[in-house]
């Protein structure tokens, strides 16, 4: 990218690519009025695509010898179903949670997979490739958003996305705690676990307060770590791809550019191959933690 005809420095290049297409400029670290439009749009598009592909697989499934597409989907379904059975022993709950876990796994994998696209491809198309985006009038999208070249396409490298997913899991955990144990049973659990209670009224109140605080800390810690783990890994992977892209940029600016270009190709290929394992593993870990947390909501302390 270039600003006012001048090439960006490496630091400016990375800061630029870490910027979001948003409804407004973020004024502080925590600003709930800011909506990262790029993350929201990519999330929705990939979510619809995942649901369509899984629906298509179910619609075309046959009892005979499966094709490659059906076999791949069946392997994922069996994998998720076996993990769900090992963690969640309520058959009725599994009818909802197992398909949910499958969608979560494939959806997060697809969001992670966006990291394998060339770093500058989508931002370049956004800034230069679509005619109506370059309209300089008040009706042009760039004028509306005021952020012409900003476009991040890895939703899981956006903390608002990963924390949004983990908060959704938390809400499901609260729902199943009430559904399985009853409101009274769960309320009793909140003040009696993990340290138990006492027949002495004073100690019973003290233990109840401590137990409740520990339960709240556990819910918050699980939710934050659930989202931060995925975000941290994907954000770091995105930064590595940006650094590798800078090698390609330096190749065109130096006399020894050939060496930079070879290094760019080798590093990019090696990291992309390794990153395939990372994006799959992170999707699996998020899915497994989702199943574990929902399983814990079914268990009585």
Q: How does this model look, in words?
A:
The chain is mainly α and 301 residues long. The protein has one domain (7-298). The protein is 72% helix and 1% strand. It is built from nine helices and two strands, in the order ββααααααααα. The protein has helices at residues 10-17, 37-60, 68-87, 91-113, 121-129, 141-145, 159-192, 201-251, 257-298; strands spanning 2-3, 6-7. Strands 1-2 form a two-stranded antiparallel ribbon. β1 and β2 form a beta hairpin. The longest helix has 51 residues, at 201-251. The radius of gyration is 24 Å and the shape is globular. The model is unreliable at 1-5 and 135-146 (pLDDT under 50).
Index terms:
301 residues, mainly alpha, two-stranded antiparallel sheet, 9 helices, 2 strands, 72% helix, 1% strand, globular, disordered N terminus
- Average pLDDT confidence is 85
Low-confidence stretches: 1-5, 135-146
The secondary-structure element order is: EEHHHHHHHHH
Radius of gyration: 24 Å
The span between the termini is: 56 Å
Query: How many strand units?
Result: 2
Oligomerization category of the chains in this entry: single chain
Measured by DSSP, the beta-strand proportion falls in: under 5%
Helix content: over 70%
Count of helical stretches: 9
Shape: globular
How many strands, what sense, and barrel or not for the largest sheet? Answer: 2 strands, antiparallel
Tally of distinct domains: 1
Q: What order do the strands of the largest sheet run in, or round the barrel if closed?
A: 1-2
Please identify the structural class as seen in this structure.
mainly alpha
